[in-house]
Amino acid sequence: MNKALHHEEPDRVPISDFFWGGFLSRWRRELGLAADTDIYRYYDLDWRVVAPNMDPHIRPFDILRDDDETEVTVHTGFGATIRKKFDLPMPAFVAFDTDTIEKMETFEFDDPFGRTPLLLGRRRSDQRCGDGFERILRPSSIALPPSTPISPSMAARARPTK
Q1: Contacts with 76 (C-beta within 8 Å, 6 or more apart), sequence order
Q2: What pLDDT, in 10s, does the model give residues 38-70?
Q3: Cβ–Cβ contacts within 10 Å for residue 124, how many?
Q4: How would you class 121 by CB atoms within 10 Å of its CB: exposed for 0-12, middle for 13-18, buried for 19 or more?
Q5: What is the pLDDT of residues 9-41, one digit of tens each?
Q6: Which of 28, 77, 81, 154 is in Cβ range 3.0-4.6 Å of 33 for a Cys bridge?
Q7: Taking a C-beta distance cutoff of 8 angstroms, is the pair 145, 123 a contact?
């Protein structure tokens, strides 16, 4: 994987895929696998599809309503209020803070090169992937393993400045 990211010839073409939550549940059930079976390790896939927080305001989601069994409603760094019903694949965008031209004109973005949790190798409390809605209620400071492939440009930005 690292060779491919550095434009060198790898021993094989890196492969991966993106899996919907419903597919993963059915896959585990039909193969009789444990609920925590990792499909990426099971099939020796080369990378994971991840959707890091790319909101213009980098902060944890504000949880407005949380029914562990059926749905959650959150307010994001985009200023969007989103309701995710767990039995449906896509969330519903309920409202936006920036809903007028005047609000758009005064909107300010966070510094994208600031010392964000993504660059510091920490997991966000609001990472999510696919049609699921993974929430880690307490942010952790789990560092990425040294072998984690990252692009050279990302590595340069992640280096601490003096």
Answers
A1: 55, 61, 82, 126
A2: 999 999 998 887 766 677 887 778 889 988 778
A3: 19
A4: middle
A5: 989 888 888 887 778 889 999 999 999 899 999
A6: 28
A7: no
Span 79-102, pLDDT tens digits: 899 998 887 878 899 999 999 999
Asked whether the CA dihedral 104, 110, 113, 118 is positive or negative, the reply is negative
The 3-class secondary structure across the chain, one letter per residue, is CHHHHCCCCCCCCCCCCCCCHHHHHHHHHHHCCCCCCCHHHHCCCCCCCCECCCCCCCCCCEEEEEECCCEEEEECCCCEEEEEECCCCCCEEEEECCCCHHHHHHCCCCCCCCCCCCCCCCCCCCCECCCCCCCCCCCCCCCCCCCCCCCHHHHHHHCCCC
